[in-house]
Each structure stands twice: as structure tokens, then as C-alpha cells.
Amino acid sequence: MPLTHLSCFLCGRTYDWRQLINTCECGKPLKAEYDLSPQTLCKEALKDREPTLWRYREVLPPCEPITLGEGLTPLQHAPRLGQNWYVKDEGLNPTASFKARGMTTAVSMAKHLGVQKLAVPSAGNAAGAMSAYAAKAGMEAHVFMPSDTPQACILECQILGAHVTLIDGLITDCAAEVGRRKAAEGWFDLSTLKEPYRAEGKKTMGYEVAEQMDWHLPDAIIYPTGGGTGLVGMWKAFDEMERMGWIDSKRPKMISVQAEGCAPIVTAFNKGERFAEEFPNAHTAASGLRVPRAIADFVMLDLIRASSGTAIAVPDDEMIAAAKELSAITGIFAAPEGGATLAAARRLIESGFLKPDETVVLFNTGSGLKYLEALA
Predict the structure, then answer these.
(1) I want to staple 307 with a disulfide (CB 3.0 to 4.6 A). Which of 241, 249, 254, 263 is the partner?
(2) Rounded Cα–Cα distance for residues 205 and 211 (Å)
(3) 33: which strand partners?
(4) Full-model pTM
(5) β-strand 3-8 against 14-15: which pairing, if any?
(6) How far is Cα 32 from Cα 34, in angstroms, rounded to an integer?
């Protein structure tokens, strides 16, 4: 069994993976550690496996998968955007966003470890995904969302049978409410990076990009960043693949994109700081980017710098215009967060940070169908 233990991203303290746990004693995120070698999984074996993220099951949590067919989303070449640019379309996952990846692994492990009731604070898409996988698992779901969450996300959770509570505030206020009530209510908290296994599902985006590019990683990955599980997970995947002999030590420049109205990681990056302060008066039409404080701030900032990447903020009007342009040129109905990556790429080309001939992967993390109010 490759999964050996959990370890803290900050202090390194270790834990038995068989125990139900949220974060380290120091309050920071835990990561799943595996005993990996070229014998763990042969990449040639993948060609005969199911077209879901569970095709990488040797490097995923050892539990019975609760799956809706998530993962292996298209990587579309988009030469009309940029010579060697690609768009990874996560909007084609179940529940129309990349959040399905994290929730299939997190809900599966929670059920494996005996959990019956789940709770999550969410800007929308994570709540929808958790509601769907909890429904499939026969588990009770409690979601807390800002009252101005896109209506599609609210209805999605309600129709999937979740108990929905709307909060006048931000996702941080929703998280505080979950924190106040979870012990008395018997809920297990599935907040972003406040348990170890959502990142395990998200890391499969890194595995897929490598597989879809014939085991050659791109020069740059541009990723819309709220809580940051995708960035953290992909960076972890690259390390795991190198340990199994699938790729070499070359890494993409990891580029974090945030909204100008909510840019804690960009602010900390520009100041040269390792930890990000809570962003004041957070606001943006891209609900997935409206995360004023992230528990894995230091993990993101460390990996961005280690990859010679950068962090950049774009204004809402620019990201919405770019989402519409991306959609009209590629046929991918992009979310505002996907538009943010195109807007960022254009700015980075203009500044010279990206070269016109570099291979670049933009992540569209959700379907525009979930954001009709913002795109209208």
C-alpha cells in the first residue's frame, strides 16, 4: 500500500493516515505521503484503464471510490489564443467544475473512515460537488455559502439534497460558522486544505497534463487561485511522477492568477513575504476567487517561487471580457476564473515574462453555465 502517513506542510509532524483528522496540531494543512518508486505504477498501464482520475489509483487514497466519472478532462490546443497555448477544460467534470476532483477523494475517504455527516464552506462550486458526492455516498451534507453565491450553485445544492445555509458575508464567514457548529452537530469539515484528501483529487490535474502532453510538462501553467488546492496538488503530482520515473526534474513556471478585488497571494508575493495577510474588503465577480485568506498561503508562495513563477491580479472587467473571448474562440464556455487566466497570459506576454513560443496551459476551472449572472 503506497500511502504511508500524513505529514504537516509546515512543521513536518506526522500522523497515521487511518485516523480521521483535519489539520496538524500547529493548525496548518496535512499532505498524504506515499512510498513511491518506478515499481509503484507503470505509466504504460494507463492506456487500458478507465477514463476517470481513479486511473491513478495507486497514488490515491486506499478506499472504495465514490465516483461520478470525474477527471480526464480535455486539453484543447488553442493556437488562435497563442502559438503553443492549451486550455484544460475542467468545466466538463461532474457538477461542472474542477471541485469534483477533490470531492471524489475527500468524500470517499471520509466515508471509509466512518464519517456520516459532512460540512463545507464554499463560494459555490465546492458545495455543489460535495452535495453530489455525499448524495451518491448516502451521507448527510451541510453547505454554507455567501448569500450572493451564483443562483445555479445554490439550486444545485438544494436539488442534490444538501442542507443549505446562506451567510451574509464571505467564504471566511461561512468557514467560521462551520467551525462554531461542527463539534456539536457531528460534522466532518471538508474545507479547502483543512483535510488531507481534496488535494489528492486535485493533483490528478498534474498527472493528466503530463499524460496528455506525452510526459513533457509545459513551460508554464496559469491557474486561477482562491484556496489554491489545484496549485498545491499539481506541484505534489510533479514530485510524485519524478519519483516514479515518469518525468524529469524540469518544472513549469507556476503562475497564480487572482482578482484585483481579492489578491492576498499576489500581494504577499510582491512583498516577498511567505505568509499572506487577509485581503480587506474582498470583492470580485469570480466567486471562486473571492477567498480573502487561504490556509495554504505559504505552500503556494513557496512553490510559485521554486518554479520561477509569478502571481498576478487582473480586474473583473478584463477577466469577464477574456472569458467571453476564450469561449468564442475555443468553443469552451469559460467561467470568469478561466477568463482570468487568459487576461493574465496576455499581460505576461506584454511584459516579456512569457515568450510567444513557450508552451502554456491555461486552466478553465468551471463552466460558464454556473456564472450566468456575472457573464450577462
Answers:
(1) 254
(2) 10
(3) 5
(4) 0.96
(5) antiparallel
(6) 7
